[in-house]
TrEMBL record:
Its EC number is 7.2.2.10. This is Calcium-transporting ATPase. One of its GO terms (molecular function) is metal ion binding. InterPro entries: ATPase_P-typ_cation-transptr_C (IPR006068), ATPase_P-typ_cation-transptr_N (IPR004014), ATPase_P-typ_cyto_dom_N (IPR023299), ATPase_P-typ_TM_dom_sf (IPR023298), ATPase_P-typ_transduc_dom_A_sf (IPR008250), ATPase_P-type_domA (IPR059000), HAD-like_sf (IPR036412), HAD_sf (IPR023214). Belongs to the cation transport ATPase (P-type) (TC 3.A.3) family. Type IIB subfamily. Keywords: ATP-binding, Calcium, Calcium transport, Calmodulin-binding, Ion transport, Magnesium, Membrane, Metal-binding, Nucleotide-binding, Translocase, Transmembrane, Transmembrane helix, Transport. It catalyses: Ca(2+)(in) + ATP + H2O = Ca(2+)(out) + ADP + phosphate + H(+). It is found in: Membrane. The chain crosses the membrane at residues 147-164, 176-195, 334-352. Residues 89-164 form the Cation-transporting P-type ATPase N-terminal domain. It comes from Parasponia andersonii. Catalyzes the hydrolysis of ATP coupled with the transport of calcium.
Length: 1031
């Protein structure tokens, strides 16, 4: 009856048989869903403390002692729906902890392998199904979709058909099949190269995704792979981390999450215990610290489901690849235009009877026309015009793949291919101080109580009352945790390096018992904790002593900022004194003295507050920020990394400017910059080389652009200042690389042309915004050298291949128009393509980077891809090769007494050998000694030997296949001698100076902007993977 009523409501009309079946199926599904919906709404509410059945699961509790008290589906729905009512039914977060048989403080028992295995079985692993990887067949198919390959296959089919028709099946198949075989060989090499690069990219991606996560297991802090996390784990999160799985908040302070990767909303979401304790996998911690309980992993999370459907395209088109595509496309258009005109001339001459055969008779005869000559001529000319298109993409693929592999060996992992080539053009590197230039191994070196310094071995002499206040300020005003597994072991501290130095000092020197301090005090959590703010450089906490119920506020942060909040101070005797103007000046000099030694200066202050002082004018609870009592000043040392000064000098030697942008005060920044070599002895604030962030941001836009080049150190800077610096440098035409590891560095890393992530202790937010992961600043010169290696080797190959293509095109066109047989037909040119595009590209792509690359200034944005030097080299060699081949073509019979077969073989052999000898010339674009260091590149020498052997086989042994004639020793000697002349020609030509300004002004016409590197650099961001915006 229900179905009949539904039919009526739906406006049912008698359909045909097929429509009736589909309609019946729809009605059945609709009715079943309606029935289930009615069942859900009318069924009595069940308790979530037991296993909650779902429509898609049936749970049979066979062994209760081995199962958990909550079903995975319920956990998935709980977090993804952010259902507070359901969480209450479970008994809150504590109830979920109990149901998952874990401990909020100690975590799970990791020594019980069965426990981990059972959690894997019940809830799944923290991995997601990856899309099917592309196999070799895919890349072969992609190669055959190339227009050039399609043209060649068509030409091969025509050659095969016409050949068999004219010469018969016994002889006519050779040319066509030869072209097919060569095309398959060239295509196979290209496909295999792309396939290997794809596999290499997948391996690097796997390494990049293997994030290390801090968890608590058996009461111990452990670092495990993100893939090893199981449901029930207790995960420690800090600012900049990626949430590794779905979960619930256990404890945390000022926790703000960026959920834009999941929801698309850029607003930050506050996570707290009362209104929103839910954490989603894949989101980022923008601010605060916390501990979370993992409730769902892998494919049971929205993030896992999304990632399983995303295919990471390893064949991203880099800016240089786009540049080369435009270059080859434009050259091919020019070549094809010339080819079309030649074909028109040939057909007009042929069909008008203006061509003659060897006997002087007219070639064109309607009844006996032989089309194989015309077909071969057209095929050869087309092939000579389009041959470059295959070589440059393959060469760039080989260069990028080789450089990526070698950079991994040099502790640099490329996350975006475009960064490889962009590094070759970097003109400025902006670097952080802490952890980048320094070792990030901080230690408290000085402590001042009042205006007196406390000796390192005399901390026990500090007045007990003041020492207790310092202990309270350190233990409560922190997001760190201290754990001591047993009496004989060392303390385990989980926090930032600065916090770790402070806590270690308090534990070891002041005998601080963190558990005792926190047990005796209560933190007032309602607007009572102000987490460290990288803009304000301070953090505060409001707490109550349980012994007397007094309320105190504690502040710590940048020494000069804490000092500005104080009106009195403790002297060395523990007596509170007023902080007058003279005394404040004295403290400022103490801070400057510590900063001049490169110390990070931290101040501590406190004050007892009354209840009525807690609220502001609007009735909101707030922390008191003035009238405080200065407890003490601390100097924390952080030595420079070994090798940093040499790395900075190497960058400066190569023409790359290094600027330090730091949040430390100007004296600390200046001391570190001087020690590292960034700042010279004659540079200071008066010269404009050192300024503070507030001064820089208050400049007018014109003033910033005017002074940005002179600035070497930007101190007391905010993330906005760093971003502003990068933007100004890019406006001035610089190619900017930025190093960073913290969340605050993310905007600048994203804005820079190349973001360099310090992979030692960096955050996931910064990593997602970066392009290359390096170990330390000492790797920057190495990355620069590899970047220049990519650019330089591509230039070498362009010069090498343009020379061969230009000479082949000119020779064939001249021969065709002059009513001569084209000497370089399809098969020889395909063989040349194999020699150049594969063997030549491999030889030039694997030339190791040399120190000579670092002697030249960076390329910059406006330099042309084909320089005047390259034009000089390639035109001279192309002219010589053209002259030799045309001499053989037109005067071979007269001067040398050669028949047509031997003449064509000599031209083919000399042409290939000229490319072999010219390969040596291409090794050095400007240096005359092209043999320098060649003994170290055994691969290059091996490829040259293989090329010569294969060429000898083509001429001497594959006569029928290659349509060649065997040569005698004298003819071989002539070919080698003529080819070897290219060496002295190269030496002489390199003595000719060329102007620095490009001869061809491509910038005058935007349609011809194909050779400018700057064109694609400006648009580089269009190739970059979108990142999470945390600004």
């Amino acid at each position: 009856m229900a179905c009949c009523i539904l039919h009526k409501d739906l406006g049912y009309v008698e359909p045909n048989t097929n429509k009736r079946k589909w309609h019946s199926a729809f009605v059945a599904i609709y009715c079943s869903r309606a029935f289930l919906s009615h069942f859900r709404t009318t069924a009595p509410k069940q308790s979530y403390n037991k296993i909650s059945p779902s429509p898609s699961h049936t749970i049979v509790n066979v062994k209760p002692e081995n199962s958990f008290e909550i079903h995975p589906t319920s956990l998935v729905e709980l977090v993804q729906d952010k259902n507070l009512l359901q969480l209450e039914d479970f008994g809150g977060v504590a109830g979920v902890v109990k149901a998952l048989k874990t401990d909020a403080e100690l975590g799970i028992q990791s020594d019980d392998k069965e426990n981990i295995a059972r959690r894997h079985k019940e809830f799944g692993s923290n991995t997601y199904r990856k899309p099917l990887t592309k196999n070799l067949i895919h890349f072969v198919w992609q190669a055959f979709k190339d227009l050039t390959i399609i043209i060649l296959l068509g030409c091969a089919a025509l050659s095969l058909g016409f050949g068999m028709k004219v010469q018969g099946a016994k002889q006519g198949w050779i040319d066509g099949v030869s072209i097919f075989v060569t095309v398959f060989l060239v295509t196979g090499v290209s496909a295999i190269s792309n396939y290997k690069q794809n596999n290499q990219f997948d391996k690097l991606l796997k390494i990049s995704n293997n994030i290390q996560v801090n968890v608590v297991r058996e009461g111990l802090f452990q670092q495990i792979s993100i893939f090893e996390i199981v449901v029930g784990d207790i995960v420690c999160l800090k600012m900049g981390d990626q949430v590794p799985a779905d979960g619930l908040l256990l404890e945390g302070h000022s926790l703000h999450i960026d959920e834009s990767s999941m929801t698309g909303e850029s607003d930050q979401v506050e996570v707290n215990h009362n209104q929103n304790p839910f954490l989603l996998s894949g989101t980022k911690v923008v601010d605060g610290n916390s501990r979370m309980l993992v409730t769902s992993v892998g494919m049971n999370t929205t993030w896992g489901q999304m990632m399983s459907q995303i295919s990471h395209d390893s064949n991203e088109e880099t800016p240089l690849q786009a540049q080369l595509e435009r270059l080859t496309s434009s050259i091919n258009k020019i070549g094809l235009t010339g080819t079309f005109l030649v074909i028109v001339v040939l057909f007009v001459r042929y069909f008008t009877g203006n061509t003659e055969d060897d006997n002087g008779n007219r070639e064109f005869n309607r009844s006996t026309t032989k089309s194989d000559k015309v077909v071969n001529t057209v095929i050869a000319i087309i092939r000579s015009a389009v041959t470059i298109q295959d070589g440059l993409p393959l060469a760039l693929t080989l260069v990028l793949g080789y450089s990526m592999k070698r950079m991994v060996v040099d502790n640099a992992m490329v996350r975006k291919l475009s960064a490889c080539e962009t590094m070759g053009s970097v003109t400025t590197v902006c670097t952080d101080r802490t952890g980048t230039l320094t070792m990030n191994q901080m230690r408290v070196t000085e402590f001042w109580l009042g205006d007196e310094s406390v000796a390192e071995d005399s901390y026990s002499t500090i007045v007990p009352y003041v020492a207790e206040l310092v202990r309270e300020g350190i233990a409560l005003n922190t997001t760190a945790s201290i754990y001591k597994p047993n009496l004989g072991s060392e303390f385990e501290i989980s926090c930032t390096p600065t916090e770790k130095a402070i806590l270690s000092w308090a534990v070891l020197e002041l005998n601080m018992d963190m558990e005792k301090v926190t047990r005796n005090c209560t933190i007032i959590r309602v607007e009572g904790v102000e987490a460290f703010d990288f803009r304000k450089k301070r953090s505060g906490v409001l707490m109550k002593r349980k012994a007397d119920n007094t309320i105190w506020v504690h502040w710590k942060g940048a020494a000069e900022m804490i000092l500005a909040m104080c009106s009195s101070y403790f002297d060395a005797s523990g007596i509170i004194k007023d902080l007058g103007k003279n005394q404040k000046t004295k403290f400022e000099k103490i801070i400057q003295g510590m900063a001049a030694n490169g110390f990070r200066c931290i101040g501590f202050a406190h004050k007892q507050v009354k209840t009525e002082e807690l609220e502001d004018s609007e009735g909101h609870e707030t922390l008191k920020k003035d009238g405080l009592i200065l407890l003490g000043l601390m100097g924390i040392s952080d030595p420079c990394r070994p090798g940093v000064k040499k790395a900075v000098e190497a960058c400066q030697y190569s023409g790359v400017s290094v600027k330090m942008i730091t949040g430390d005060n100007v004296f600390t920044a200046k001391a570190t910059a001087t020690e590292c070599g960034i700042l010279k002895s004659d540079q200071d604030m008066s010269s404009g080389a050192v300024i503070e962030g507030v001064e820089f941001r208050n400049y007018t836009p014109e003033k910033r652009l005017e002074t940005v080049d002179k600035i070497c150190v930007l101190a007391r800077s905010s993330p906005f200042d760093k971003l502003l610096m990068v933007q100004c440098l890019k406006q001035k035409g610089h190619v900017v690389a930025v190093t960073g590891d913290g969340t605050s560095d993310a905007p600048a890393l994203k804005e820079a042309d190349v973001g360099l992530f310090m992979g030692i202790q960096g955050t996931e937010v910064a990593k997602e915004c970066s392009d290359i992961v390096i170990e330390s600043f000492t790797s920057v010169p190495t990355v620069l050298r590899w970047g220049r290696f990519v650019y330089n080797n591509i230039q070498k190959f362009i010069q090498y291949q343009l020379t061969a293509n230009l000479s082949a095109l000119v020779v064939n066109i001249v021969a065709a128009i002059s009513d001569k047989e084209v000497p370089l037909t399809a098969l020889p040119l395909l063989w040349m393509n194999l020699v150049m595009d594969t063997l030549g590209a491999l030889a030039l792509a694997t030339e190791l980077p040399t120190n000579e690359l670092m002697e030249n200034p960076p390329v910059g944005r406006t330099e042309p891809l084909i320089t005047n030097t390259m034009w000089r080299n390639l035109l001279s060699q192309a002219f010589y090769q053209t002259a030799v081949m045309l001499t053989f073509q037109f005067k071979g019979e007269t001067i040398f007494g050669l028949n047509d077969k031997v003449r064509d073989t000599l031209i083919f052999n000399t042409f290939i050998l000229c490319q072999v000898f010219n390969e040596f010339n291409a090794r050095k674009l400007e240096k005359k000694n092209v043999f320098k260091g060649i003994h170290r590149n055994k691969l290059f020498l091996g490829i040259i030997a293989i090329t010569i052997v294969l060429q000898a086989l083509m001429v001497e042994s594959l006569k029928r296949f290659a349509d060649t004639e065997r040569l005698n020793w004298a003819e071989w000697g002539a070919c080698v001698g003529l080819a070897a002349v290219s060496w002295p020609i190269d030496w002489v030509v390199k003595c000719i100076p060329v102007p620095g300004k490009p001869v061809f002004s491509y910038t005058s016409n935007k349609a011809l902007k194909i050779f400018e590197l700057g064109e694609f650099r400006v648009r580089e961001n269009s190739f970059r993977t979108p990142h999470v915006d945390i600004c």
